[in-house]
Amino acid sequence: MSKALVVIKSMGIGDLVILIANIHAISQSINKPVVVLAQKNTHAQEILKYDPHVGEVLDLDKNGLFSIIKKIRPKNFDQSYIFSDSFRLYLASKLSGIKTNFQYSLFSKKGKNFFKTAKKFTEKTLNVNLETQSKIFPNISDVNYVVKKFDISNKTKNIICGISASGPTKRWDIKNYIKLFEKINKRIPCKFFLAGGANDQILIDKILNSSIGKNCISFSKMTIEETIPIISACNICISNDTGFAHISSALGLKCLVLFMDSPPAAYGTYSKNISIIVPQGETNESCGHNTRGKNNISFDEVLNKTLELLI
């Protein structure tokens, strides 16, 4: 029976989540869980912990070629699927004794659409039609626990709020989010879960110290694993283009995602659960890296689309 290794070079949480559908397709093709080798920053250990298609997650460290070989050679894989055009990763796979290795064409990835490149690779390799909507499997007992702990019920709308992002040009102004939360809550009683880490504490504190702060719960001191059951129990997600938006989408939430300095064509259109907002004057195709459009996101459009998702 085949034993397959899936290698993911990309560093971001969102990148990992987008590729989950591809991981599942590989597992289904061999009728067995795969082993995933991914960078620690993707939090793959936590995100894939309860995934029936993943038997184990290994950290792709940065200690060099022979460190990778030492990690994967004892596993005796006979197949590898490398979601990268890296020669180093291909060489590590070959030198680890893996006989059948699939990967992107070497030095071919630059400038390519992220999810479409992965889709094309998986479809060609497996001879399948790939549905790109990703799915994360939460632990049901954990979901039941957080529902009680945080009083998540139909008395309020429970909203995941991805206020952070990988850089300031990808973040809608926190004042806009505060204003948005206040206006939504006047129409529909809401509880807001502030999805950000320890580095986002300044942003989170601004919300907690505002008039809407009493309706908010912060994720800043939680691990990704701790947030997953909470997200799973909520209604919708409003977010910048950040990892929490992709996690929410993969947990089945309808998500309104603001793209202001990244390409929605590569990071938003893969999911049927994601509704996209771009800066005024831009389209899904024209908005990309260096658009710098955070000041051109229409507040009224965000408010109206949020209300549409909630009602």
Distance between the termini: 49 Å
Number of helices: 13
CATH architecture of the largest domain: 3-Layer(aba) Sandwich
Strand line-up of the largest beta sheet: 8-7-6-9-10-11
Could you say which structural class the secondary elements and strand pairing correspond to?
alpha/beta
Rg for CA atoms: 20 Å
As for the number of domains, it is 2
Query: Beta-strand level of the residues, as a percent range?
Result: 15-25%
Roughly what percent helix?
25-40%
Largest sheet: 6 strands, parallel
CATH class of the largest domain: Alpha Beta
The backbone outline, from C-alpha atoms, is: globular
Name of the CATH homologous superfamily of the largest domain:
Glycogen Phosphorylase B
| Run of helices and strands | EHHEHEHEHEHHEHEHEHEHEHEH
The parts where pLDDT drops under 50 for at least 5 residues are: none
- CATH topology name of the largest domain: Rossmann fold
User: What is the count of β-strands?
Assistant: 11
| Overall average pLDDT | 95
What does this structure look like?
By secondary structure, this protein is of the alpha/beta class. It contains 13 helices and eleven strands. The chain has helices spanning 13-18, 20-30, 44-47, 65-72, 87-95, 114-126, 140-149, 174-187, 201-208, 224-233, 243-250, 264-267, 299-310, and strands at residues 4-8, 34-38, 54-59, 79-83, 100-103, 157-162, 190-194, 216-218, 236-240, 254-258, 274-277. The chain has a six-stranded parallel beta sheet, with helices on both faces. The longest helix has 14 residues, at 174-187.
